[in-house]
Amino acid sequence: MDEAEDGFIFVPLGGTGEIGMNLNLYGCDGAWLAVDCGMGFSGPETPETEIILPDPGFIAQQREDLLGLVITHAHEDHIGGIARLWPQLRCPVYATPFAAAVIRRKLQETGLQREVPLHVIPPGGAFELGPFKLRYIRMTHSTPEAQALAITTAHGTVLHTGDWKFDAAPVIGEVSDEAALRALGDAGVLAIVSDSTNAMVEGHSGSELDVKKSFESFLPDLTGRVAITCFASNVARVASIIAAAEIAGRHIALVGRSLNNYITAAQEAGYLQDVPDFVPEEEIGGIPEDHLLLLVTGSQGEPRSAMARIAADTHRYAVLGDGDKAIFSSRTIPGNERAIFAVQDQLARRGVQVIVDGDEFVHVSGHPAREELRKLYKLVRPRYVIPTHGEWRHLSTQAALAQEAGIKTLLVEDGDVVLFTGNGPAVVDSVPTGRLAVDGQRVVPLKGGVLAARKRMLFNGVVVGSFAIDAKGLLHGLPRISAPGLLDELDGAQRLAFEREFQELLQDLAPALRQDEAAFADAARAGLRRIVGKPLGKRPLVDVHILRI
C-alpha cells in the first residue's frame, strides 16, 4: 500500500466479481471513505448459513482514518450489513432521507440507534469529508432516492454509479439527472465505477410504468386469493401493485416484517402517502378470496420468509390453495434458483397457479441494459470505466461494451488496490478480503471453526458420548451414545454393542490419563470417533459429556 498512500485509490472489498455484499473504499492522501455496506444471500455452496457479509477487516484496522460511510441507496445489498458491521467501523454514516429511515430501523433492532452518527443528505446534495468533495447525483432505480456519487479530490473525479437506470416514468422517485451527469462530464471524469448487472442485456431495461399498466390490466381478471412477492425495498413495484389492487377491488395485506418496515420508511420520507389502509395479518381470513391481495416477502425463496411459510402451509394467517395465484414480481439473484424453484414447486403442489415474468409482464430490472450504459458513457465521457457490481461475466461484458465506445477499461476484483494516476488507473496492490456469516446475533467468519463444524454436522452428523466418572476417574455405569439421524435405524442390540465397546475403551485408558479431564475427553473423543466412524462410513463431529460424581 505504500505506493498508493499519497494518491487517490479505489479498493472494492465486496460486490465486485459477485452479486451483493457491496462494500467499496476510496482513499486519498491517507484518509478513507467507504461507499455502501451490504449483505448477500448464501447459496448451495454454503448451506450452513443464510446471510453473508463482506469482511471489513482491512479498513477496520485503520478506522481512525475512516471519515465516513456514504450510502447510495436503500437496497439490502448496499445497506444490509451496516447494523452488523458498524461496530468494526465506528464512523459517521451519510444517506438520503429514505435510506436513513430504513437504516434507522435496522439500527434500532440491534440497539445501535444512539451510537451511530447518521447524517441525512438531500438527494442531489453536496458535502465534504476531508480531502473528498462529494456530490449525490439523482438516478432512477427500483427504490427511491438512488444516488450516484461523484467523488472529487485533488487528483481528479470518479463517478461511483451505485445502482441505476434511465426510466422516463419511474412511478416513484426522480428520473436520472442527465444534466448533472453531462455537467460532470464537462468538468472531466477520470473513471466511472459502474453497475454491471445487466451489461449482457441488449436494449433498454424497461419502464416501471409499463409494469404498473400490466398489473392494472390482468389483475382484475384473476380469481381466488392472489399473493405477489417482490423485494420489500422495491417501493416503486409496491406502489404499482397497490394501484392495480385498488383497480381490481382487492384489499391489501402486508405479509412479512420487512415490507412493513420499508413502507413505513417510505411514508416517513414522503412516499406512498395516498395508499389505502392495509388489512392486518390476523384479519386476512375475514376477507373474501376474490377481494384479497397478499403482498408478501420471499421473492428469493428465503427459508423463513412469508412466501416460503405460505408454500409450506406453516404461516399463521396467510393461506394459499387450489385455484389461488402466486406472482413472483422480481428477478432471480444468481445462486437462489434452487430455493426459489423449491418454493414455487410447493405452491404448485397445493394447486396454486405460479406466475412469473414471461407468463405475464410483472417485472422490469432496476439496472441499466446496454443502451443505457452507452448513454451514460456519452453523457459523462470518462477516460476509463471500471466495472463493478456483478459476476465476472457481467464485468467483462461491460468492459467490452465500453471499449466499443472508445473508452479504456480496467477489470478488477475484490481486494484489488486501484491507483488513479496521470496515466490512468492501475492495480498496484491487493488487500485481504473475505466473507462473514450472520449466525443469530453474531457475525462469524464463514470459513471459521463455528460454521466449519456446523457444515460438518450437516453432511456427516454429530455423535455425543455421555458417561459418569468419580474423583478417581473410574467409570460408573454404561456410557450412552446419541447420534440423531445416524443411529436412529439401529436396533437395540447394535446400539448396545457400540456403547459396550465405548465402555471398554474408557476402562482401558491409563489411570493417570483419567485424572486429567482435558486429556481424558480428548482420548474419549478419539475412541468414540473410531468406534462409530468406520461402521457408519462417515466422519461425524464427535463430542463427549463427562459427568463427575
Number of domains: 3
Distance between the termini: 59 Å
The helix/strand class is: alpha/beta
How much helical structure, as a percent, in the residues? 25-40%
Give the biggest beta sheet. 8 strands, mixed
CATH superfamily of the largest domain: Ribonuclease Z/Hydroxyacylglutathione hydrolase-like
**Inertia-based shape:** globular
Return the average pLDDT rounded to an integer: 90
Reported by name, the CATH topology of the largest domain is Metallo-beta-lactamase, Chain A
Q: Could you tell me the number of beta strands?
A: 27
From the 3D coordinates, which CATH architecture of the largest domain would you assign? 4-Layer Sandwich
CATH class of the largest domain: Alpha Beta
Percent of sequence in beta strands: 25-35%
Q: How are the strands of the biggest sheet laid out side by side?
A: 8-7-6-3-2-1-21-22
The tally of helices reads: 16
In short:
The chain has 16 helices and 27 strands. With 549 residues, the chain is an alpha/beta fold.
Question: Could you characterize the architecture of this molecule?
Answer:
This protein is an alpha/beta fold and 549 residues long. The protein has three domains: 2-203 and 365-445, Metallo-beta-lactamase, Chain A (4-Layer Sandwich), CATH 3.60.15; 208-356, Metallo-hydrolase/oxidoreductase (Rossmann fold, 3-Layer(aba) Sandwich), CATH 3.40.50; 461-548, Ubiquitin-like (UB roll). It is 32% helix and 26% strand. The chain has 16 helices and 27 strands. Strands 8-7-6-3-2-1-21-22 form an eight-stranded mixed β-sheet. β11 and β12 (156-160) form a beta hairpin. α4 (97-109) crosses α8 (257-268), α5 (178-187) packs across α11 and α6 (208-218) packs parallel to α7 (235-248). The radius of gyration is 28 Å and the shape is globular. The termini are far apart.
